[in-house]
Amino acid sequence: MFSGISRTNSLEDYHQESPGEVFIVIKWLIIVCFLLASCANETRDSPADSYVEKVPTTVLDAPSVNGANAAPINRAAVERGEYLLEMLGCGVCHTNGALVGSPDENAPLSGSDIGIAFTTPLLNENPAIVYAPNLTPEPATGIGGWTEEQIVAAFRQGEGQHGNSLVPVMPWPGYSMLSDEDAYAIASYLLHIDPVVHRVPDNVPRGKEASGHYVYFGVYEKK
Ligand code: HEC
Hints:
- By secondary structure, this protein is mainly α.
- It folds into two domains: 3-44; 50-223, no CATH class.
- 36% of the residues lie in helices and 4% in strands.
- It has helices spanning 3-8, 11-16, 18-43, 75-87, 90-94, 148-157, 172-175, 180-190, and strands at residues 115-117, 129-130, 214-216.
- The site of heme C has 26 residues, from helix 5 and helix 6.
């Protein structure tokens, strides 16, 4: 009944361990291969290497109303518009520098030279990029020539001025529930701030190289 124990101590068993030595060699080979493979991975470029994480400013003071503006002022609506615009964070994208945490406080809401890329950084070396435009009432580079209806249609329905739909990086679907009263208050406010001359760069289609710098927006679900 103790035959099992006596057999582990027998010479025969030592002899039988030679296949085990082969396994040890194989095991070491696997470890070496694994180490080599992980070294190779370390030297391979990771898409994340080209990016710096940024903490953007999330709350910005909206610029004050310009009383000298020619259009008739409904002061209560304009003040409500200022309050809503601050709360909805429009300035974070529409103020130059704010996307990377250093807003240009001298030119609030006059558009961003920093683009927002919205196609995946893991696949597109040259992603599609949009630039948040100038929202001040400057006729040539801003929304100076727009009616309140056109402004509301843009930020509540995503209607561009050229029959185009605004890319939802501009979060208009999130603003679609704004009441008429609130939406028109925002539009009226925008038409009563100081105009700033500032033309943002043209949007860049996917595959084309952008001349300026940009940040990434997007939600990527692991497949
Ligand atoms: C997350 C960034 C972001 C936020 C927040 C944002 N926008 Fe925009 N907005 C954009 C971008 C980008 C565009 C351009 C989209 C395009 O070209 O398709 C845009 C376009 C617009 C336009 C059209 C302007 C033009 O010249 O075509 C208006 C008007 C506008 N936004 C108003 C607003 C208002 C009002 C708010 C706040 C209630 C707001 N946006 C918040 C990014 C943003």
